[in-house]
Amino acid sequence: QTGAFTFDPGYTSTASCESKITFIDGDEGMLLHRGYPIDELADNGDFLEVCYLLLYGELPTKAEKADFDYRVTNHTMVHEQMNRFFTGFRRDAHPMAVMCGVVGAMSAFYHDSTDITDPRQRMIASLRMIAKMPTIAAMAYKYHIGQPFVYPKNDLDYASNFLRMCFSVPCEAYEVNTVLARAMDKIFILHADHEQNASTSTVRLAGSSGANPFACIAAGIACLWGPAHGGANEAALNMLAEIGTVDRIPEFIDRAKDKNDPFRLMGFGHRVYKNYDPRAKIMQKTCHEVLKEVGNEDDELLNVALELEKIALTDEYFIEKKLYPNVDFYSGITLKALGFPQEMFTVLFAVARTVGWIAQWKEMIEDPNQRIGRPRQLYTGAEKREFVPIDRRG
Ligand code: SDX
């Protein structure tokens, strides 16, 4: 009988927080950023416009948007010495490991934007993170495949710049496909922020001690990497490939329902959504657009995914447990069609989620009542007892 412990009912978790940034109604399958529905932002805005909204609370005027785009664009290059961090990794290192290392190393580079008590430095750190993440992600990809780094080109929009840094090579002309760039931009919007998910809570907790903002973002990247969180897009694609054909779906549905089988339908279920993840609907539409543009409309993985969704949504287990596709279910197929290897999928999630992490970190730092996070516990260990010298321990 371990010790009895009376849980102090007066204790309130310091892990919970108030925020004005994102609202999720899990039962309705609703996601709002500063009050704007995600589908309206994805259909009508661009990613930097959503970044501005998340950071400052309002959609920008034309002048504000032009100024914000200009400021972000002029931070897209990384310090040339940062290239050396990449060469310390094996070529076959997972790009998320590289992202953790290189973004963490930014805390050693950009001293003029790490004093979190200085609003100007906080703003520069925010702009640097949003601007440099695509460059660092593209460098991680190029290093991974053994190609030379490609510098950002500031006459391109955010998504086009990223695709060019990933897929162009010095020896050939490269023209951005505007349909694919628009799809990439939309995918960034869908992943920008999502209330107090695990990685955002990690960034808030790390930031609550006053830690270096770049190091806090590196902590968020580490958390996002997990297959239960941002790593699910890579895991979902592996699952669809393992299922392979539509006729093997029932076998996997049974495994997902089997308590003794650790198999989970990756890309399904959500701690908050007990209805369809609104981002999954937009991602499915974007997936069709990308597959059509690359001439692979009849993609077998998409056929498996569509049939799996159809079967699962009529199965009483999934209905009873309110398990629906989440943002990761269709994203892997889409990103693969865009030309990315699956080990880059979570990196792309991190590029997009950086603005959410930064916006939530900024909101916390600027709260005059902000205190260090200190989640408590329900102790279920041994009661107080006396030490027993080793020669008397039998
Ligand atoms: C993201 O928090 C966020 O907002 C995250 C995110 C974001 O934008 O930041 O939305 C991004 O991480 C999306 C989720 C990606 N992960 C996956 O797709 C991995 C597969 N999903 C599961 O691992 C699971 O659904 C979680 C991790 C997402 C949620 O886990 P929970 O909180 O345990 O889910 P739950 O409490 O709603 O589960 C209810 C029941 C449980 O069974 P019982 O204990 O009641 O018997 O449903 C079961 C779960 O075991 N269940 C599943 C399942 N997901 C939950 N059974 C089969 N397949 C699944 N995918």
From TrEMBL:
Presence of the UniProt keyword Lipoprotein in the record: no
The organism's place on the tree of life at top rank: Bacteria
Keywords annotated in UniProt: Acyltransferase, Transferase, Tricarboxylic acid cycle
Residues forming the catalytic site: 270, 328
PANTHER family: CITRATE SYNTHASE
Membership in a protein family: Belongs to the citrate synthase family.
Name of this protein: Citrate synthase
Species whose genome carries this gene: Pararhizobium mangrovi
Organism lineage string: Bacteria, Pseudomonadati, Pseudomonadota, Alphaproteobacteria, Hyphomicrobiales
Gene: gltA
